[in-house]
């Protein structure tokens, strides 16, 4: 469907002085993968704006398109069998038109990314020190000795004890949590204005996860860096983001300032997802409100709302016609024909 | 923590009673991985015991050692009063039909080349139970019980199903021989959030319908609380704390349990994540199971560690009625609660 969905940038309230550009603007972004089964619409018309120093959470289950969205923003997509449409603008510059060499100028210096699995994102046969100084030497053209001094400082700031010794080690000599600290140090090395963190703690144990999330939050505040935190875990984004978008089947189905999303979720999928998670604070044996069915097939998009086949509230219209994103208050919009009443979701869940 | 002892074992007839379980693996050069070191547990008929801890704590090894897969290095595993470690061959195989296991990755635990009918019906054919027609009926009945449409599902192969449906098939297979005890090893951690709840509810339903007893192994604290009657927390091959589920989460007595619970992200933006700088000072490194710390194994990361913790291993002891912890400085249940005020609201 050609949608009115997800167009029009929101968030005038966060915008900078007139005439300046937002840090990141994503407009009607579509990333489709061409496969033997037809086009898989991994990202299907996503728009949002991110201002300097703000934190945005992107929440969705596997297959919702959240990782492909992050990679599309970075320009990290396979060279073939991909159809990419729409715009990504960084400080007003179109990223989609940039040559690989121009993108390299941006990566690390302006926009950085932290991936889920620190073992595969580090080079196993290169010492930690060189992996950190590499970006600095490329972007900042500083002497090796100074790069090393900065690398020690960086490792210390991400909480790695005995940093000078760690510089000489290889990734396999570090634990998973320490490796993720190293990838964060690499991402921060050149002082980027935007950090994309794609499930940065999913591979880690819960005590380590808490430390890494605290570290990311502290660095983000101290450096006044904008951050996009991609996760499947509503708990991870709850206390750490200014704003959340919820994705389902490649689209944004709800977006809101974080406190508003939790107190006033309107879209039925957001509500169902929120209710289906077991809480560590809920008494034992509380019956979970499961979502029936299975996540949608992105190669065979629904005519109507893609959540309709699993939705308790779906009626005929939901199966026929895709709901557009409609405004529900400052910075809050959702795509649902029969939304929850304001405040309903939160009241029932508690 | 990380203590030994059997104070938490109950006098009643437990369906499963594990005592002084030790599992070690050779690691070359004469070294040994101390995967499970002197763990004792019991599970009563109809109860669900949650076994929780971070990676490397020995929870899965414990589950497998109960099944004798592989056999533990030492210790006893009494199931229905019989010590499994002393059984062998046919006797062990026969006993194990009443003891089943469900694994984490539902797709790799099903043979991709066989139909669901064969996978689920195999236990019956192995034991020569029933005629082919009776087997077919039993397969259909159990598939139906786990929420699959027997008619369409039976002829298909695992790759035609989603992860959640494959886990339903695994559950059906585990139920075929009417086991008394099912060991679930991370049964929902490979599943999507929205599918997790389906499988957790299904396990609760199956438990009620077939009168099962469960050992539920997982790293997700919220999931464990949801399904468990009693919860045991493990760290580096040792037991830290055992208590009824709600009690353990409301008032953790062991510093490790308290740390774990404080680390869980809560889906509530009014709870700002704890900006406690002291928490970052804690050494995040798990000590090596090749050379675990002396005394209490948690002492290297414990905010309350003192000299005695390096010298003497704490014995597990009762800190409140029915609530056991292995710590020289167990938290007062009340004090523990107030340290994490966010945990109180929901537990009314």
Distance between the termini of chain A: 37 Å
Q: What is the average of the pLDDT values of chain B?
A: 89
| Count of extended strands of chain A | 12
Order the strands across the largest sheet of chain A as they lie in space: 6-7-8-3-9-10-12-11
Q: How would a crystallographer describe the biggest sheet of chain B?
A: 8 strands, mixed
User: Which stretches of chain A are low in confidence, meaning pLDDT under 50 for 5 or more residues running?
Assistant: 1-16
Strands ordered across the widest β-sheet of chain B:
6-7-8-3-9-10-12-11
User: How much beta of chain B, percentage-wise?
Assistant: 15-25%
Most extensive interface between two protein chains, with residue counts: A-B, 52 and 56 residues
Strand content of chain A: 15-25%
What sequence of helices (H) and strands (E) makes up the elements of chain A?
EEEHEEHEHHHHHEHEHEEHHHEEH
The count of β-strands of chain B is: 12
C-alpha geometry of chain A: globular
Radius of gyration of chain A: 21 Å
What's the CATH architecture of the domain at 16-98 and 177-264 and 288-347 in chain B? Answer: 3-Layer(aba) Sandwich
Q: What's the number of structural domains of chain A?
A: 1
Structural class, from secondary structure content of chain B? Answer: alpha/beta
Q: Which CATH class of the domain at 16-98 and 177-264 and 288-347 in chain B? A: Alpha Beta
- What does the oligomeric state look like here? heterodimer
């Amino acid at each position: 469907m050609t949608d009115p969905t997800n167009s029009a940038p929101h968030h005038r309230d966060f915008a900078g002085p007139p005439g300046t550009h937002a840090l990141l603007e994503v407009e009607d972004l579509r990333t489709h993968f061409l496969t033997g089964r037809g086009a898989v619409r991994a990202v299907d018309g996503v728009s949002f704006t991110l201002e300097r120093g703000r934190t945005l959470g992107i929440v969705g289950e596997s297959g919702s398109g959240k990782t492909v969205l992050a990679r599309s923003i970075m320009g990290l997509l396979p060279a073939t069998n991909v159809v990419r449409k729409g715009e990504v603008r960084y400080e007003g510059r179109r990223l989609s038109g940039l040559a690989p060499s121009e993108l390299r100028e941006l990566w690390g210096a302006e926009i950085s990314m932290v991936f889920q699995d620190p073992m595969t994102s580090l080079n196993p046969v290169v010492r930690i020190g060189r992996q950190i100084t590499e970006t600095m030497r490329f972007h900042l053209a500083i002497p090796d000795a100074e790069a090393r001094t900065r690398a020690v400082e960086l490792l210390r700031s991400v909480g790695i004890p005995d940093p000078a010794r760690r510089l000489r080690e290889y990734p396999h000599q570090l634990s998973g949590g320490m490796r993720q600290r190293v990838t964060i140090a690499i991402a921060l090395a050149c002082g980027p204005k935007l950090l994309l963190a794609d499930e940065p703690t999913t591979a880690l144990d819960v005590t380590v996860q808490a430390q890494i999330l605290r570290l990311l939050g502290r660095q983000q505040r101290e450096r006044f860096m904008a951050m996009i935190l991609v996760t499947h875990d509503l708990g991870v984004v709850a206390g750490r983001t200014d704003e959340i978008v919820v994705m389902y089947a490649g689209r944004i189905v709800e977006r809101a300032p974080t406190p508003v999303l939790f107190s006033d979720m309107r879209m039925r999928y957001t509500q169902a997802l929120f209710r289906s998670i077991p809480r560590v604070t809920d008494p034992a044996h509380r019956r979970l409100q499961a979502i029936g069915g299975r996540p949608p097939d992105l190669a065979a998009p629904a005519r109507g709302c893609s959540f309709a086949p699993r939705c308790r509230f779906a009626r005929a219209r939901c199966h026929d016609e895709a709901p557009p994103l409609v405004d529900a208050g400052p910075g809050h919009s959702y795509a649902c024909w029969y939304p929850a009443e304001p405040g309903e979701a939160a009241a029932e869940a508690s | 923590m990380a203590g030994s002892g059997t104070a938490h074992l109950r006098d009643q007839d437990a369906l499963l009673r594990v005592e002084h379980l030790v599992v070690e693996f050779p690691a070359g050069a004469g070294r040994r991985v101390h995967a499970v070191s002197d763990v004792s547990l019991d599970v009563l008929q109809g109860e669900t015991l949650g076994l929780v801890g971070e990676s490397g704590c020995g929870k899965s090894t414990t589950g497998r050692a109960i099944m004798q897969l592989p056999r533990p290095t030492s210790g006893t595993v009494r199931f229905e009063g019989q010590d499994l470690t002393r059984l062998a061959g046919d006797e062990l195989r026969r006993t194990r039909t009443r003891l089943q296991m469900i694994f984490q990755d539902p797709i790799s635990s099903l043979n991709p080349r066989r139909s669901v009918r064969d996978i689920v019906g195999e236990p019956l054919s192995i034991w020569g139970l029933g005629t082919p027609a009776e087997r077919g009926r039993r397969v259909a009945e159990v598939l139906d019980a786990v929420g699959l449409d027997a008619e369409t599902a039976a002829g298909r192969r695992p790759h035609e199903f989603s992860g959640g449906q494959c886990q339903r098939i695994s559950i059906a297979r585990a139920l075929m021989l009417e086991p008394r005890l099912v060991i679930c090893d991370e049964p929902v951690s490979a599943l999507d959030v929205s599918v997790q709840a389906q499988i957790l509810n299904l396990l609760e339903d199956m438990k009620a319908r077939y009168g099962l007893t469960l050992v539920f192994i997982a790293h997700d604290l919220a999931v464990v609380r949801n399904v468990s009657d009693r919860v045991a927390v493990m760290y580096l091959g040792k037991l830290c704390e055992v208590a009824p589920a709600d009690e353990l989460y409301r008032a953790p007595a062991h510093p490790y349990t308290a740390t774990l619970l404080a680390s869980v992200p809560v889906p509530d933006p009014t709870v700002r994540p704890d900006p406690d700088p002291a928490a970052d000072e804690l050494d995040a490194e798990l000590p090596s199971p090749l050379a675990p710390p002396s005394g209490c194994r948690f002492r290297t990361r414990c905010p309350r560690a003192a000299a005695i913790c390096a010298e003497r291993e704490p014995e597990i002891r009762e800190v409140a009625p029915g609530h056991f912890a292995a710590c020289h400085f167990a938290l007062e249940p009340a004090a523990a609660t107030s340290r994490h005020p966010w945990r109180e609201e929901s537990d009314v």
